[in-house]
Amino acid sequence: MLAVWGAWTVHLYRQYQALAYELEAERQRNFAEMISHVEAMRGLMGKSLAAGSTRQNALYMGEVYRRASLAAANFMALPLPEELGAATGKFLNQIGDFAYSVVRHEAAGRTMDEAQRQELARLYQAATDLTATLRDTGQASVSEGFRFAKAGVGLSDLFTAWRERRAAGGADLTQDQAQKSLIPPGLNQVGPQMDQMPVLVYDGPFSDHLEQRTPAMGGPAITPEEARARALAFLPEGVTADALEVTERNGRVPVFAVRLPPGGGRPAVTVDLAREGGHLVSYINARPAGEPRLTLEDAREAGLAYLAAHGWSEMEPTYGEVADGFATVQFVHAPGGVRIYPDQVKVRVALDNGEVVGVDARSYVMSHRERGGLTPSVTREQARAAVNPELQVEEARLALIPTEAGDGEVLCWEFRGTLGEETYLVYVNAHTGLEERILQMLITDSGTLAL
């Protein structure tokens, strides 16, 4: 009997050891890739400051956007304390948003103005500081043999834990103390650096200025237990509520961050639910991409089915792009065929099997509400008269878009058409008949973007 028990114990130990090695490899890979993307992002920002042509600068800033998005995804996949991850993840996302807004302006023929150049210089300096910290952290992690997870637990580990408890006054380590023990050397300096960054304000077509607004969607406050229960709808089958970690995160939309820790070859999954109303704000599945087998159109269909299954009704896909084995598709609310661009949800789909691995519904939660005034005063034919007659119009429909300043909304006729070899979206105010906005459609092998 003792021999059987011993053999079973060894078996469990080896299983745990293999899982720990697998988990550690995933986290070390995310950490290394994050450092690589931040370094590349910082270099590209420097090149942008030195660029002498609008075309060259647009190329650099487009790559900054891509690198910042990848760095943010790698960083948020690491098991770091909330106060460290939130500020840095926000900073990386803001750099990406700023870069994207510059690309859109330059594609519309507007070069960077002095205010944008000063903003880019400020962000470049912050990225330089972040890069230096990450380099030091990476080198220290290698030299000190840092590990996010231990491969096994032996007598020496038990003794270390006992000694740490004694140092803490005989009590068990708090969750905060345990989290800090998993921070790579020197990385705890990053959070305070990012917290000192002023709020980034950028302008661009359909930009949300989310930090300046109050969520339109609300509802009764939910409890952490209710958050666990609601999060199960977005998690793999077989997951139970007691396996989930719940923390609170403040911001423009205060949320319960519900996290399913990685294990058994499964990556970490995080579900952010608004504390008022329990609405989904974001969903992140940190799994890597497999060999792509699906198209962007397949991703649109998968995303639309996912949204319908989770309660988003009358949604339409608009723009999308493919990169690194994933497709990101933007969907907008379209009741009665009127596209409500502020009510948008971005869905990330893995192109190996069509699984939805990311949802960003912040814009929807911030903006969605019952709206009136969606009846035009100007007919389609009257609005068409305001459009360049040389534009070959292919489609016309009503759309509600944000104002240029981001502080209101305006109902427009949206005309999609071609001029030469380029495709444009022209927006004519549906009440005044005046031209409101023009966007150029950038159509590439990886997808379509509105600039």
From TrEMBL:
It holds the Pfam family YPEB_N. InterPro entries: PepSY, YpeB_N, YpeB_PepSY1-2. Residues 186-371 form the Sporulation protein YpeB PepSY1 and PepSY2 domain. Residues 16-149 form the Sporulation protein YpeB N-terminal domain. GO terms for biological process: spore germination. It comes from the Bacteria. Residues 378-433 form the PepSY domain. This is Uncharacterized protein. It comes from Symbiobacterium thermophilum (strain DSM 24528 / JCM 14929 / IAM 14863 / T). The lineage of its organism: Bacteria, Bacillati, Bacillota, Clostridia, Eubacteriales.
